[in-house]
Model the fold of this input.
Amino acid sequence: MKRPSTIDDRVLVLPPRFLAGIDYYRLAARYRYVAVDPDIAFNKRAKTVHRTTIADTRGPLQLTVPIAKVDHATRARWSDVAVSSHNQWWNAMMTSLESAYGRTPFFEFYVDRFKPFFGPRSDGGGEPITALDDGLHRVACDILGLPAPLTVADAMALDLPTDDYRRAPMPEMPPVKPYYQVRADRLGFIPGLSIVDLIFNTGTEAPLYLYN
Done:
């Protein structure tokens, strides 16, 4: 769909997220220029960099990418934090996604876009968690019709006013309009889930829910 003409011309700067929640993309959809900074300081309490929430058969389910132990945490950046190969987590995560969304209308149409990120690590682990986040984020942006994220350097070179949420809490968004969820008849509508919930359930209509 065509983006609204009211898109903000300021630059939005966001922290990295693993399969970020729908509100992350609803905020990004309001801006013409969006950058994601992988080099923000490591904070072990920032679980959303390697954790997301989906709707499983029994309700919300957290999916977590294990990360390697961080040395000198006070100086580390999230881009220094490596993905671990612990217990071949990608197998369990792919199984969880298939269990949660295998019967949704658009799972088969989109799942192959995400599968390459949930396979054996070519280096046995060690890739930055922010690289995994960035790859998935770019897939989601492409599906949703949003521009690919800029680097922070390129965004700052635009010399435009900036809304920076790397350290500040992101603004509270109005409640998302309830959309089709495959188990809503049994579980009710579940808000606050990963963007994949919206994509697999609504497909080509997903962008419509970013602008309400």
